[in-house]
Request: fold
Amino acid sequence: MSEKLDPKTQQKRTYKKPEMVRVSLRPEEAVLGTCKSGSAVGPGGSSNCMPVAPCFSPGS
Amino acid sequence: MVGDVRLRIRSVEQSMRVRVNRVAEDFLVSNGAADAEVTAAWGKLRQPTDSTVVFDSGGLWRLSRELQDYVFHLTSPMYGALPYKRATFGADFTRGEVLLERSYFDSRDPVDTLEYPLDELLMMNLLALGRGVEVHACGLEDSNGQGYLFLGHSGSGKTTMARLWQRAGGVRVLSDDRIILRSWAGTTWIYGTPWHGEAKFARPVRTPLRQIFFLRHATTNEIVPLRCAEALARFLACSFVPFYSQSGLDFTLTFFSQLIALLPCAELRFVPEERAIDLVRGHAA
Reply:
């Protein structure tokens, strides 16, 4: 008795060459390590915003 | 209340009044049990010992572990290495104590106890314990109730997108910079937050999410579908997660994987013009 093949397995998928995609991560943004645009950090309000790293750019 | 997560803040000092910033005032609620309670007091602060530090943001804060507690020390170059604030939270972040270095504050003024970045750090940790995820995104609700999410780093066009949609009319912009995602009752919701971008869109409302786009400035308008693996990587790169917490990262990756399985993701290459909005609306239809 011959075994019938599942039609799904008979259809070969087109081979696609794997490709590497680089996704950028901005650590200083991801860890909330810098001032946020328009916000204050520390006692005394916005005049005291002196981040270690650059502030987030105003445009988001 | 942000993202349906209620925070309660109270001072335990007679000489200290607490406040929130102007934008966060729109998120104040007067009812409901708090998900997290934080007390505020004056303290004499010291630098954390290096042996206890488990994560250094490289900027405004460092995290230490003291027994089971998470301890954040916040510093500003204006005041040198001595922290101006120390926040201690239990392992589930439902209770916390914030100590403020008295010499830095004018005790006659009310204090913004959870001032950025502590407010977002607390929310990030509460969300990562099974509640949801905060992402770097513009979120809005179209006139038909469809929720759109536009993710991207600073400079990718989130505020530009928010302004374009606002100008087109018939929409509610929830935020032009920070959105909270939560899933319940078979739906993923996007929530506005007080942490706005340059255009200062910050609405304390939620709407069901229907479309997800990662933003990219281009010379023509185009929608390019993303494969699941790339979408997952880009979600992670545009999210705020506790990188020091394995369980938090596990939850976040699972959350994004389930979301991507339900809603396709695409890159929106766009020119800052109204036709980009037409393209998105046409894609949704």
